[in-house]
C-alpha cells in the first residue's frame, strides 16, 4: 500500500510540518511506508483546522460588522425616539 502525502504549497503548512514531510520522504522505504500515512493524517488535520479557523475568523468578522450596524440602528432609533418625544411634549405644551 503506497500512501502519498498531499501536495501543498509550503506556506500552507507550518514550517515544522514541512520539514517533517521532507525528512520522512528521505527515509528508507520500510520506514517511509510506516510513517507517511501518519504524517498524511497530521497534514490533513492541520489543513482542516486551518480551514475551520479561517471560517471562524470570517464569521467573527461578519458578526463584528453586524454588531456595528445594529449599534448604529439602535442609536438612530434612540435619536428618533427622543425627537418624537420632544415634538410630543411641545405639542402638548401649546
Short structural description:
By secondary structure, the protein is mainly α.
Q: Tell me the overall shape.
A: rod-shaped
Task: Report low-confidence residues grouped into runs of 5 or more.
Answer: none
Question: What string, H for helix and E for strand, traces the elements in order?
Answer: HH
Structural class: mainly alpha
> So how many helices?
2
- Indicate the radius of gyration in whole angstroms: 29 Å
Distance between the termini: 92 Å
Number of strands: 0
Strand content: under 5%
Domains (count):
1
State the major sheet.
none
Helix content: over 70%
Mean of residue pLDDT values: 90
Characteristic terms for this protein:
mainly alpha; 81% helix; 94 residues
Summarize the structure in words.
With 94 residues, the chain is mainly α. It has one domain (10-93). The protein has 2 helices and no strands. It has helices at 15-25, 29-93. The model has no long low-confidence stretch (mean pLDDT 90).
Please specify the SSE layout and strand pairing.
Layout: H1 15-25, H2 29-93
Helix pairs in contact: 1-2
